[in-house]
From TrEMBL:
Annotated positions binding heme c 2: C155, C158, H159
Name used for this protein in its record: Cytochrome bc1 complex cytochrome c subunit
Annotated positions binding heme c 1: C60, C63, H64
Keywords per UniProt: Cell membrane, Electron transport, Heme, Iron, Membrane, Metal-binding, Repeat, Respiratory chain, Signal, Translocase, Transmembrane, Transmembrane helix, Transport
Organism expressing this protein natively: Streptomyces netropsis
């Protein structure tokens, strides 16, 4: 007992006990850690990348190059991220049928599983925006009024005040947003497809994007009503001014003619 007590008072005793505890902890972690789960995730990701590469070689490489480096017919895809792939392919804009001023929205030719594989492959070429989760783009709990303010400041110049779309120069256009999946709206803000500027989180926060999505969901809802009466297509002050000019001025001209006609008739009598 005296020997054991003396060893406990030895200056290196605490170090020995600490090393022993660390060794036991490391051994237990190695024995019970979910290594198989992590390995399975890595294997699934590798398979997704490989399958995505096959799909890319068939449907995308002719324009974007065999390694995504881009060609004269298509831009580089290195660093665009999985979100750009999900937006472009899920909305049917890619693969492009023919070169034009702008890629139109059409029916997607790939399943969502195949789109995920393509996205995994493109993401492996270089870091970029990832596909958002539902909690990021869901309008639940968002500030609709703030979203309207942000939309009118940053988006209405092209998409009009309620997202009805509008014409741009040289055959380009801002598409309507009344029938767009919230996830794709979020991805468009993240990646800036075609003529649209990008709004990364450093420029527009995740909450601000949710607010804009909530605003569009509200104004384009079938249950929403225009508090001003006739909505005139929701195109903003131009259509409202044209309506006032044509019908308002027309009504005043009609009244002036009626008054003049009755005045002349009264003088004759």
């Amino acid at each position: 007992m005296k020997k054991l007590s003396a060893r406990r008072r030895h200056p290196l005793a605490a170090v020995v006990v600490l090393l022993f505890a660390l060794a036991v902890t490391g051994g237990l972690y190695a024995a019970f850690a979910p290594a198989d789960t992590a390995k399975a995730d890595d294997t699934a990701q590798s398979l997704a990348i490989e399958e995505g590469k096959k799909l890319y070689s068939v449907g995308c490489a002719s324009c974007h190059g065999t390694g995504g480096q881009g060609t004269s017919d298509g831009p580089s895809l290195v660093g665009v991220g999985a979100a750009a792939v999900d937006f472009q392919v899920a909305t049917g804009r890619m693969p492009l049928q023919q070169q034009g001023a702008q890629a139109p929205k059409k029916k997607a030719i790939y399943s969502q599983a195949e789109i995920d594989q393509l996205a995994a492959y493109i993401a492996s070429l270089g870091a970029g925006p990832s596909v958002p989760s539902k909690s990021q783009y869901s309008p639940d709990g968002a500030d609709i009024a703030k979203g309207g303010e942000l939309f009118r400041t940053n988006c209405a110049q092209c998409h009009n005040f309620t997202g009805k779309g509008g014409a741009l120069s040289n055959g380009k256009y801002a598409p309507p947003l009344d029938d767009v999946d919230p996830k794709h709206i979020y991805e468009a803000m993240q990646t800036g497809p075609q003529n649209m500027p990008s709004f990364p989180d450093t420029t527009m926060t995740e909450k601000n994007k949710k607010d804009i999505i909530a605003y569009l969901d509200t104004v384009n809802s079938s249950k929403s009503e225009s508090p001003g009466g006739l909505e005139l297509g929701g195109l903003g002050p131009v259509s409202e001014g044209l309506f006032a000019w044509v019908f308002g001025l027309g009504a005043m001209i009609a009244v002036a003619i009626w008054v003049a006609a009755h005045t002349a008739k009264a003088k004759k009598s």
